[in-house]
Amino acid sequence: MLSIKDFSEMTHLSAQTLRYYHAEGLLVPARVDEQTGYRSYTFDQVEQAMLITVLRQAGLGVPQVRRALAEPDAAPALLSEHAAHVQRQRDEQDEAIRTARDLLRTRPQPCVRHVPAMTVVSRPAPVTPFGEDRQEWELTEAALTAATDELIEAVTSCGATPAGTPWRILAPGSALAGDGTRWLVRTAVHGAAVLPAGMEVRESAAGEELSITMPGRSSMAKYGTAISRLLAHPIDGAFPDIGRLRHLVHEDGVEYSAPLRRVT
């Protein structure tokens, strides 16, 4: 039998950690003295301690380790699920690092750009949450991405050709909706086509927009920053119509573009 001190030295697990693993049922001592409470371990338990250590170093929580030990056949699938979760976290961190570098290197600045006349196809997107937290915001992004993909597929199947980057825009009166946020997804097209019901086609005149691109994926903070920068940008004789703000999702960021309205 090995004392807790000897077992600790052999496994490189502190006595405090061994007591914790005992309490959690991960590594139960072979013997516990009823009078002194001293824990003793067998040499065979070193292997179990090693496995627990490896699983913990891999990032598995105590409940996951407990399940892996109790259900060895389920352990490979459990580890694969955890590995996929870790990879998603790494991807998010890598993206966050790229975004931080972009923001620190060159602060996004608004610029005026000319928008040509175009034929625009529009359809409503599903009502989405208000985006009061990150989870709701991500649900909204996923719903709008799916709705945009469906729009492009429908336009293409009807013989029209999408032109440029599609966008989304808040539907008029959306801010007053009590059940969520209402969006419209839109794309410019080339070529006439008979479109399915529920889609609107209109001609958009040429004009000017004040635009700013925020690097990385969309977030409420970036949305708010974009609006703040657009409103603060000085333009002689005009102002950005934030109520008609377009959101154009690019591979490397989100462009927020508001039509300019001339002051008369």
Summarize the topology:
Elements: E1 2-3, H1 4-11, H2 15-23, E2 31-32, E3 39-41, H3 45-57, H4 62-70, H5 75-105, E4 111-115, E5 118-124, H6 134-157, E6 161-170, E7 183-190, E8 200-204, E9 207-215, H7 220-232, E10 238-240, E11 246-250, E12 253-262
Description:
The structure is a single chain. This protein is of the alpha+beta class. It has two domains: 2-77, Multidrug-efflux Transporter Regulator, Chain: A, Domain 2 (Orthogonal Bundle); 111-262, Multidrug-efflux Transporter 1 Regulator Bmrr, Chain A (Alpha-Beta Barrel), CATH 3.20.80. It has helices at residues 4-11, 15-23, 45-57, 62-70, 75-105, 134-157, 220-232; strands at residues 2-3, 31-32, 39-41, 111-115, 118-124, 161-170, 183-190, 200-204, 207-215, 238-240, 246-250, 253-262. The strands form three sheets. Strands 4, 9, 10, 11 and 12 form a five-stranded antiparallel sheet that branches. The protein has a four-stranded antiparallel sheet with strand order 6-7-5-8, covered by helices on one side. Strands 1-3-2 form a three-stranded antiparallel sheet. Strand 11 (246-250) and strand 12 form a beta hairpin. The chain is elongated, with a radius of gyration of 29 Å.
List keywords for this structure.
264 residues; alpha+beta; Multidrug-efflux Transporter Regulator, Chain: A, Domain 2; Multidrug-efflux Transporter 1 Regulator Bmrr, Chain A; 2 domains; 5-stranded antiparallel β-sheet
Summarize the structure.
This protein is an alpha+beta fold and 264 residues long.
